Write the structure tokens for this entry.
Amino acid sequence: MDTDMGMVMAGVRRKDHCRLVVCGLSACVAFSVTQAQARDWKTEAGFSVSSIYSDNGSSDDESGSSEFVTKVSPNLLIKRDGGRARFSFIGSAELTAGGEDVDRFSPRISSSFDTELIENFAYLDTNLQVSQRSIDALGPTNGDDPLNRNSNRTETYTYRIEPYLQKTYQNGNRFKLATFFQGQESSDDSVSGADTSGAEFEVARELAGSKATVSLSADYRDTDTDNSASSFSTIQAGLGYQFTEHFALTGTIGRENNDFETVRDTNDGRIWKVGAVWTPSSRTRLNVGYVDRFFGSTPTLELSHKLKRSVLTLSYSRDLSDSNSLIEGQSTFSDRDAAGDPVDPFTQLVQQLSANSVTEGAFINEKLKLGWSVSGRRSKFGLDISYSNLDYEDGRDDEEVSELGLSFSRQISRVSTLNVGLIGTRSSRGTEEADEYELRLGWDRRLDDDTSVGFLYQFIDRDANVGDSYQENRIQLRFTTRL
């Protein structure tokens, strides 16, 4: 009883601490906004008004009730990149009227402030993210707004503060010493919060008169959640050799010491890696490797190939991770599409949503991603395929998520664009399975340089042996403008 009460109180203190830090960073953001305006930084503001109809707003059975809501979304963009400080802020808030038991207010923020404290030596990076995420990979994922009451979305508040020392000398030698503090909290009480801290050190030296580089690195990471604690640490020595301008080999050997709940006999041991990097041109990069750790051996792959009108990317990895690390590596918004082209922040904000469950404990994360995009004079086509398998160290059932995304856009006139998209997701965990498909048909028309209107139809079909199976038709009308 005392232990349970202690965990509850620790969770409350963690929430208060995270909120305090988020409020502090938000105050810094607000101050920076006033400075941005005074110093003529790049600032843009706008809003959109949407009317949304759904024939199954509750998303709970085949014959759910219809819903109609109106959503107002103000947006703010601030950027500065120059001198010894870089600042970026993208913020959006959804204010919803109508419907029953819908989320009335839903914020989304992606902000960073990086500064050089001492020239070429001391730095400070800060980051703040407020995003929407799925709680369970096998739960309903439909909708990117608060219309659907499926109880499978949570707001995640994440901050990160990283002071570090870094120096690169004229002879190519370099070193880095960093520490970081990070907090995560969610609006849903069923999702555990987390406090993470860590440090890393790296020193590298180019051998005189050769193309070889030797390095020594160490890192440590400690995470406390409402119900558990874990730590990860490694120390490694590396050797790299640049044979030609386009080809290099690398090798690393070291040890890791980990502390987390596991059904294995040991979660420590030796690490060794070998790899090759081939860059035949500025448009192509291939990085292949082979890694051996306590959980087994695995190949790694990273490929990027760019042509005049197409981009191909392919990657595969298998690594030790946890939910906090997955969320840490994702941004609330993306400012570029699959082809690498800039995205208009007020008409095409792309939300980065976590496909895997938000949970506790360490797992082996196996990831495969394929992306291909082709751009013509008036048309764009995109293909995205991903596979993820989370092998939980504490013996829970593996969680597999496979995703397929197809997109096509066609500029049908000087001011109008037609958009078609298909998204398919298949999730499984033990005997539980869920398939979800979403078809999108959209049309956008630009009224002037700052104003546009749009229409979007969505059909969603979910078939699962866990939770509800249902179908939903949704229609959305949107008006967007810059101020």
